[in-house]
Amino acid sequence: MISTGLFTLHRFPIQVQQNEPVVLYAFGDVHRDSPLCSTYEWQRFLAQAEREKAYLLGMGDYIDFASTGERKRLSQAELHETTLHTFEDVADRRVAQLAEELRPFEGRIVSLLEGNHYFAYGSGITSTQKLCEELKCHYAGASAFIRLALHRNKNSKGGSVCDVWAHHGRGASRFLGGSLNRVQQMQEQADASIFAMGHDHKRSVGSNAKLCLSQGGGGLRLIHRRQVFVRTGSFLKGFERDTVSYAADGAMSPNDIGPVRLELTLCRDQREGNDYQEVEVKATL
Question: Domain 7-284 classified CATH 3.30.1380?
Answer without folding.
Answer: no
